[in-house]
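User: quick one
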Amino acid sequence: GAVVSQHPSRVICKSGTSVKIECRSLDFQATTMFWYRQFPKQSLMLMATSNEGSKATYEQGVEKDKFLINHASLTLSTLTVTSAHPEDSSFYICSAREGFGGLGPHQPQHFGDGTRLSIL
Amino acid sequence: GDSVTQMEGPVTLSEEAFLTINCTYTATGYPSLFWYVQYPGEGLQLLLKATKADDKGSNKGFEATYRKETTSFHLEKGSVQVSDSAVYFCALSGGGSNYKLTFGKGTLLTVNP
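Assistant: Done. Structure below.
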């Protein structure tokens, strides 16, 4: 159980293009989803936290107009990288946290397989 | 704020060797502790977890015990396999950062046949 599907797995596009990444919880309801960015050989950097039906909370230094997050349902969150440039090239990973498990902050996060974004 | 310090790698072992990856933490409140594993080109998979002091998490031969007195959550495996080669992340949640996960920097493990 607790499967998170992230799509696409890899994107290569030209500078200036906007790219949308989807994150779906397949067998559970996720009231909270998280978006991370990972640079080569480094740990994950939290970009934003999205709660179903409300605005995302962005971490300090992350441009909210650049990285648009929508969490329209309990099973889907999307990250759109607007007008992407080469410096946005990275590995983006989403995670989802089950909302009704009763464990509060002790509920584990389940991760998607990541999206490799390459901007030419 | 919350923080996680884990043993820097890379760690290289021969098959069937004993593995320890050290992890210590700083947190307010009563956090839960996790180990995640990341295989090349993939996302993270939950390996094991512990939600309170003295809990032992275990999975696939890996174990870690939540030690509040030493604020540690060291990962161990008695006999590693080539297929265990991956990056291992220690993490906590439920401390001062509420639902967010605070990660260590990750430890690359390579197991040679």
